[in-house]
């Protein structure tokens, strides 16, 4: 790592401990006190915000910014599905 600012490989330094998803209540909504109906009402606006942020990330990349975003979805409900990435 002679020419790197890292004191150890980033993959080692940033690795998170494993998580057992089956130990979590699938009906839990941590950080959200609303019900399903409110969540469904808020979803379109959150989608717009996410779309705007993605557009800015893309535009920044086109102008030379080298920041990236890696989004990893893992879960009992989203695993193996493509429905979450609809437009």
UniProtKB/TrEMBL annotation:
InterPro entries: P-loop_NTPase (IPR027417). Keywords: Transferase. GO terms for molecular function: transferase activity. It comes from the Bacteria. This is Polyphosphate:nucleotide phosphotransferase, PPK2 family. The lineage of its organism: Bacteria, Bacillati, Actinomycetota, Actinomycetes, Mycobacteriales.
